Fold:
Amino acid sequence: MKAFRYFLLTLMTLPFVACDTNDDGFYNEVYVDIPNLVTVQSMPITSGQHLYVSATFSRFLVEPGHSSPLDIYETTGGAPGFSFTYILGKRQGPEWQPVRVSPNMLDVQDGSLEANPFFLIAHSEYRAETEMYRYNIGIQLETPGEYRLHFNADADPKRQAELRSESVGNNLKLNISSTVEQLDVNGFYSFTVN
Amino acid sequence: MKRIFLLLLLVSQLSVAQEQSAMLGRPNEFRIDALSLIAQGKWNLTYERFFNGDISAGVTGSYANSDKITEDYEAGFRNNQPKYEIVPFVRYNMSKSQTNFYFVEIFVAANGGSAREITRVETGANAHYEIAESDYFDVAIGGSRGYKIYFKEKYGVEFLVGFGPNLIDKDKSPDVISRVGLNFGYRF
Structure:
């Protein structure tokens, strides 16, 4: 009976030991920091005008700490795009509410945008002829008021957009943390529409 | 009453002695692990030699060819793909019986396979990241516990649970080598 108890104890211990391993994880992910890939148009806006966000960059990027440019297209096995999310909010009394974005509010110069009720997914799309990823879309702001935009205000550091390659199959997924100059220390770009 | 008790004790001792004698007349055993084969696509063949008393020793050879592990490895859900293990072991029988007993063992697992890591590669003026594959070899030392039962004193069924950490190339090899199996053997 004593031996059986030891045996059971061993059996119960095994799953915990098996979980204590770094063999499982996500090993197709690459993480780099490259600043200033995303910009927010920073100029006064009146109601009816558009707020533009752009993410247009070459496939060859200067990676801090390295002398040779990083070829992000080759790294990702020819990823057709990079995506990132952002949230546009409007002050409603004491609270901030997400702005509901519909297709007729968009001025699409480059790339594409998916509008969800609470956030926006931007796609910077690859153009082979220029070897650039391109995104530049404006959102029409129809009513006056206080607005703010943020990319990743819950993360630390806050002033960054997180771009992720849309890699196909088992190719490497490239995650780029990119500082956005226009954001304040809390990660927001705040502005007023008159 | 006392005489009956002594008689029963004597019969019991004779029975155990007879059983032990029969088992020691078959000191060799081969077995295969059905659980590893079904659950992990791992072929496991074990030879064990039984010595007088409660000690035995043996070696297990295994080769893994699991589609699931290969898929996970290529998709990047794991950074290594174990392929083979050579596992010498020494066991101690914790019970009095030779046909139905618990045991403990110490094992050494020499194991190897493929590993992957992401490296930055300079190609002329530019650079890119890519997956570099290499082989690994490691050695784990561990312990196991198990239960074994024989039928007709030659057909054995054994359940085994154990583990041991790899010691040499931890960046590439699995952190822990587990030794879990349901073995079916023949003793001769």
Q: What stands out?
A: Residues 27-187 of chain B form a domain with the Porin fold (CATH 2.40.160.20). The mean pLDDT of chain B is 89. The two ends of chain B are 41 Å apart (CA to CA).
